[in-house]
């Protein structure tokens, strides 16, 4: 077996592990069930990737985050390591082929979502694989009291039944003590090796600042610390607004949110990663899997939804070990805003039932039917049809998705169907006078043979690729053909796809998950209370507050947060008052030289001289001709 350090050096170009990594890797290689709690940026993925590379066989990695799966697979492939991810949208035939590749193709990593484990085909093929390790990422999702609980995570224990001799590693960046116990129980760990790295960051100053003019304070912070920064904001509109404001103040900035195209995300990300833009203004869609070590400041302009998410986002600052700042800006309106944003939008069980019934009606699904049917979904049209609040409805759909009632695939696409309504000779006569349309029309005809005979659903991206043009250009041409009476065109934009996982049973379907919905709503209320308590508590060190939330005890004050700095300032002013009092008491007895006072008083020479300067300035004492001090009124 290759030594872990050699694997680290070969693939990652490092010669030493970070704290805890080597001990975790050795425990996994020795076949122990292992739990690893490492903070953001602590290098969790290496803890299962290196043991998997050290052994023969394939590692099954369960993760709920499609973007993170894709990033990790891409990074492994770039190192020449065979890895794949089973994401949504894969046809049965393709899935069949991919799983065969995992059995026979010397793949080292198979990433999949917990929902994939429900498929018999996936279970059957995994059983045939030579599995060397099972890794559960974002393991807090298995606990009903964990952030982002997903019932499908409870299916992971199936892997243990398929491969009872294979050990498991569970990893997370945020889990409180009772959640850790829950995780190890749910994953059927026997005498688990538990590794918890302290979340204390000696170089990271947690600052909570009360500001009425947040933009002005952001400008002054960024001009003082002219280094890489992230600013987290509440919504997509604010990312654009704030980045424009910063540019107007000659601070280079770009923005990131979930609504950008993949190309736009990549372009903006590269500007920031390459330090062509000092600031990335982003929603919480940004940051997962990003490891930029030189981030100087992470600023939250709005209160986050939980300590867990704040700690993870703030932890992206100062990963190179240099002093860095996690700054949370607040004002009097923030408490109302955070409650409106995260609590008032929690759907009740009754509302979830209503949304589910209407969703079934919207797609004309009969009672007892609909399982595994796929539907293009226009979310705004659905809300408008039933006069639903968009944010409440979206959260209800997310609940249905997380609880495996539906699968909500959020991807914009054009739903297009076309039929030519003129004869073939007439079409070619038309094209003689419209040469700019020829390539696109011919491409369409070659892909879709029956397009003259009946209404045909077409893939505009495929046509665009064949014609070497853009999808938007294809849409414009189709609209022109419709206007000229050449085709009948049906063009609808969809922003999602809905797959029904369970057959329709109306209230019975939701009753099965009612307790989970209520529990998650309660958890969200507790999390919002915790973040409000954190922002309001200005007597306990900010770092201590955060670490205590995650169960760390006997923590020394950090000395650099807003609370510690305020305490130092107060102590300093108390010392000056004490020195003033002692100097005045000495001078009431007789005149004194500064040297005599330094000898007589138990304070530093520097502090005594600074206090003498203050007393002189306020005309409380005066200097005599013999360079001694006396009280002015004597």
List the helices and strands and how they pair.
Layout: H1 4-12, H2 21-29, E1 34-37, H3 44-54, E2 58-62, H4 66-78, E3 83-86, H5 92-104, E4 109-112, H6 120-128, E5 131-136, H7 157-162, E6 168-172, H8 177-186, E7 193-196, E8 204-210, H9 214-224, E9 229-232, H10 236-248, E10 253-256, H11 262-273, E11 279-282, E12 297-300, H12 307-314, E13 324-330, H13 334-342, H14 349-362, E14 374-377, H15 379-386, H16 390-402, E15 406-409, E16 413-420, H17 424-432, H18 438-447, E17 456-458, H19 460-466, H20 471-483, E18 487-494, E19 496-500, H21 507-511, H22 514-536, H23 542-549, H24 562-589, H25 594-600, H26 605-617, E20 621-623, E21 629-631
Parallel strand pairs: 1-6, 1-7, 2-4, 2-5, 3-4, 5-6, 8-13, 9-11, 9-12, 10-11, 12-13
Antiparallel strand pairs: 14-19, 15-19, 16-17, 16-18, 20-21
Helix pairs in contact: 2-3, 5-6, 13-22, 14-16, 19-20, 24-26
pLDDT < 50 stretches? none
Question: Regarding quaternary structure, how should these chains be classified?
Answer: single chain
Bin the strand percentage.
Answer: 15-25%
The level of helicity is 40-55%
CATH class placement of the largest domain = Alpha Beta
- Radius of gyration, Cα only, in angstroms? 31 Å
Structural class: alpha/beta
Shape: globular
CATH architecture of the largest domain: 3-Layer(aba) Sandwich
Q: What's the arrangement of strands in the largest beta sheet?
A: 3-4-2-5-6-1-7
CATH superfamily of the largest domain: P-loop containing nucleotide triphosphate hydrolases
Helical region count?
26
What is the fold-level CATH name, i.e. the topology of the largest domain?
Answer: Rossmann fold
Instruction: Sketch the major β-sheet.
Output: 7 strands, parallel
Average residue pLDDT: 90
C-alpha termini separation? 88 Å
Number of structurally distinct domains: 5
Number of E-state strands? 21
């Amino acid at each position: 077996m290759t030594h872990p350090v050699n694997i680290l050096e070969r693939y990652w170009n490092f010669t030493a592990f970070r704290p805890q990594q080597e001990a975790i890797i050795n425990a996994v290689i020795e076949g122990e069930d292992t739990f690893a709690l490492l903070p953001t940026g602590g290098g969790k993925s290496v803890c299962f990737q290196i043991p998997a590379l050290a052994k023969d066989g394939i590692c099954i990695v369960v993760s709920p985050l499609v973007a993170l799966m894709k990033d990790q697979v891409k990074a492994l492939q770039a190192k020449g390591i065979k890895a794949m991810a089973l994401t949504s949208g894969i046809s049965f035939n393709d899935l069949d082929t991919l799983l065969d590749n995992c059995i026979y193709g010397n793949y080292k990593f198979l990433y999949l979502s917990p929902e994939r484990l429900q498929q018999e085909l996936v279970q059957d093929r995994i059983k045939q694989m030579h599995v060397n390790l099972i890794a559960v990422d974002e393991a807090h999702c298995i606990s009903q009291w964990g952030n982002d609980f997903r019932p499908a995570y409870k299916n992971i224990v199936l892997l243990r039944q398929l491969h009872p001799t294979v050990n498991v590693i569970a990893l997370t960046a945020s889990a409180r003590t009772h959640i850790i116990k829950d995780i190890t129980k749910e994953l059927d760990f026997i005498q688990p090796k538990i590794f918890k790295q302290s979340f204390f960051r000696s170089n990271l100053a947690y600052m909570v600042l009360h500001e009425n003019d947040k933009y002005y304070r952001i400008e002054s912070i960024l001009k003082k610390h002219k280094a890489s920064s992230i600013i987290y904001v509440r919504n997509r509109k604010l990312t654009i607004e704030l980045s424009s404001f910063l540019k107007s103040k000659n601070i280079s900035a770009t923005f990131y949110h979930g609504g950008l195209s993949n190309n736009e995300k990549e372009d903006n990300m590269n500007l920031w990663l390459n330090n062509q833009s000092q600031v990335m203004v982003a929603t919480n869609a940004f940051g997962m899997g990003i490891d930029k070590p030189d981030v100087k400041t992470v600023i939250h302009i709005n209160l986050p939804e939980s300590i867990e998410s704040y700690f993870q986002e703030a932890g992206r600052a100062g990963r190179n070990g240099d002093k860095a700042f996690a700054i949370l800006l607040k004002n009097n309106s923030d408490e109302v805003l955070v409650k409106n944003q995260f609590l008032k939008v929690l759907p009740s069980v009754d509302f979830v039932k209503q949304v589910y019934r209407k969703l079934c009606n919207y797609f004309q699904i009969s009672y007892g039917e609909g399982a595994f049917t796929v539907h293009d979904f226009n979310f705004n049209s659905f809300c408008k049809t039933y006069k639903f609040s968009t944010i409440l409805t979206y959260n209800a759909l997310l609940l249905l998705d997380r609880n495996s009632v539906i699968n909500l695939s959020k991807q914009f696409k054009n739903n297009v169907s076309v039929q030519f309504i003129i004869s073939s000779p007439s079409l070619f006569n038309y094209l003689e006078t419209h040469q700019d349309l020829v390539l696109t029309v011919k491409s369409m005809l070659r892909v879709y043979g029956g397009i003259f005979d009946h209404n045909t659903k077409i893939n505009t991206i495929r046509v665009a690729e064949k014609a070497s043009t853009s999808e938007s250009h294809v849409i414009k041409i189709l609209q022109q053909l419709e206007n000229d009476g050449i085709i009948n065109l049906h063009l609808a934009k969809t922003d999602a796809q809905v797959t029904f996982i369970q057959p329709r049973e109306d209230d019975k379907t939701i009753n099965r998950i009612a307790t989970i919905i209520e529990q998650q709503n309660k958890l969200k209320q507790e999390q919002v209370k915790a973040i409000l308590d954190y922002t309001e508590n200005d007597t306990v060190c900010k770092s201590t507050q955060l670490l205590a939330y995650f169960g760390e005890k006997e923590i020394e004050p950090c000395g650099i947060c807003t609370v510690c700095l305020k305490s130092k300032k107060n102590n300093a002013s108390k010392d000056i008052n004490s020195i003033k009092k002692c100097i005045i008491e000495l001078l009431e007895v007789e005149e004194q030289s500064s040297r005599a006072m330094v000898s007589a008083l138990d304070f530093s020479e520097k502090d005594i001289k600074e206090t003498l300067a203050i007393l002189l300035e306020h005309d409380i004492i005066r200097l005599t001709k013999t360079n001694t001090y006396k009280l002015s009124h004597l």
